[in-house]
Design goal:
about 230 residues, alpha+beta, Ribosomal Protein L22, Chain A, 2 domains, four-stranded antiparallel β-sheet, about 25% helix
Length: about 230
């Protein structure tokens, strides 16, 4: 069963929808779900559940901005969502949680959201050694969260940055090139920059910021880029 949840307050783009679900077997009973793409025909029940819940959220987010929309969220060759003309958006899903956001493309260049839930402590620590840059470790001392929560926050923030920038750059961006230089826990914001030169007009020269929340047993992050980048 899909259960609507309060969406994390990550973006100023208002068209956001999030859900939780009880079990993968419940999802085949949801009406109006698009058929699975061929590339997921052999996927595990958990992967199918996450994909289905994410696409359900995307459809609901689109309906909030286009009440009479009857299409579907497609899939690009690289596996990223193919949004209806005139919209940008992002989908995230993790164990038992999914969310999506859309925004008008005449106002927003791109948006990116991500949600993460800790599972295996050893895997999380291994991910931290790969994802967190040396300079970012100093940030953890100023935050009232555990080391595992800190790793999840950094990882999720970089996932959101990637999701936001990839549609604009049309190329992969290494996590090692994303640098979080400040995290304000009270305001729930983070500042970041890209250490390699990227295409003009995508980010301001001073970098950009994102937001985060701890809700529903997950860490959630979001990044948005308006059309009028200063």
């Amino acid at each position: 069963m899909l259960i609507p949840l309060e969406a994390p307050r990550l973006l100023t783009a208002p068209y956001f929808f999030s859900v939780a679900w009880d079990a993968p077997s419940d999802l085949d009973q949801i009406p109006d779900i698009d058929p699975l793409p061929e590339r997921l025909s052999a996927a595990t029940p958990t992967r199918i559940a996450e994909f289905t819940a994410g696409r359900f959220c995307a459809a609901k987010a689109i309906e909030a901005i286009r009440p009479h929309w009857t299409g579907r969220v497609g899939m690009n060759p690289d596996g990223s969502p193919l949004w209806p003309c005139g919209l940008v958006g992002s989908i995230t899903h993790t164990q038992g949680f999914a969310a999506a956001v859309v925004a008008p493309s005449d106002t927003w260049q791109s948006v990116g959201i991500d949600s993460e839930k800790a599972t295996d402590a050893n895997a999380l620590e291994a991910a931290g050694r790969i994802v967190i840059n040396k300079g970012e470790h100093r940030l953890s001392a100023r935050l009232p969260i555990s080391e595992h929560q800190f790793i999840l926050l950094i990882f999720s923030a970089k996932e959101s940055i990637y999701k936001c920038l990839y549609p604009l750059l049309k190329r992969p961006l290494d996590f090692s090139k994303m640098v979080l230089e400040d995290i304000d826990f009270q305001k729930r914001t983070f500042q970041f920059y890209i250490s390699d030169p990227i295409e003009p007009g995508v980010l301001s020269s001073s970098g950009a910021h994102g937001r985060f929340e701890f809700m529903h047993g997950c860490v959630h992050t979001g990044v948005e880029l308006a059309r009028d980048v200063p």
